[in-house]
Amino acid sequence: MPAQLNHTIVWSSNPAESARFLTEMLGLPPPVRFGPLHVVELDNGASLDFAKTEETIQSQHYAFLIGEDDFDAVLAHIREKALEHWADPSQRRAGQINHNDGGRGVYFRGPDGHFLEVITRPYGSTAG
User: The organism sits in which domain of life (predicted)?
Assistant: First the structure.
């Protein structure tokens, strides 16, 4: 039976702000309200549904595959907003990007501390 990710809930202290941040960073259409959720539709049919919580938020990791021109735009947003960013998930290469698998990638944090990543090539795409 085929299975595709349809949506996941992203816990947030301010769902509207967090969803808006993500859509602005990725150049996506504005979030859509669905009941208490702020829904960010992705280009592959999946969505991130931002929901309010009063609990302590555990940082999660969300990676997005984007095009080269879109990467330039995201990196420009990161720099305009003076966001910390890293070339690696262990945050040892601050202020840098990576060139894994012949593409480019960068990590940065969203408003609730979720670890966001954009890459232009899937990991392992140059493996033989």
Answer: Bacteria
Q: Are 42 and 32 in contact (CB under 8 A)?
A: no
Bridge partners of 110, per DSSP, are: none
Q: How does pLDDT run across 91-125, given as a tens digit for each residue?
A: 999 999 999 999 999 999 999 999 999 999 998 88
Residue 126 has pLDDT above 80, yes or no: no
| One-letter amino acid for residue 42 of the chain | L
Query: Of the candidates 8, 4, 77, 60, which has an alpha carbon nearest to the alpha carbon of residue 39?
Result: 8
Separation between Cα atoms, residue 98 and residue 37, nearest integer Å: 33
Q: Superfamily assignment of 7-119 in CATH?
A: 2,3-Dihydroxybiphenyl 1,2-Dioxygenase, domain 1 (3.10.180.10)
The closest alpha carbon to 11, from 47, 44, 75, 54, belongs to 54
d(CA 105, CA 34): 31
Phi, psi at 86, each rounded to 5°? -140, 155
pLDDT at position 82? 97
Torsion angle defined by CA atoms of residues 56, 59, 60 and 61, in that order, rounded to the nearest 10 degrees: 160
pTM, rounded to two decimals: 0.94
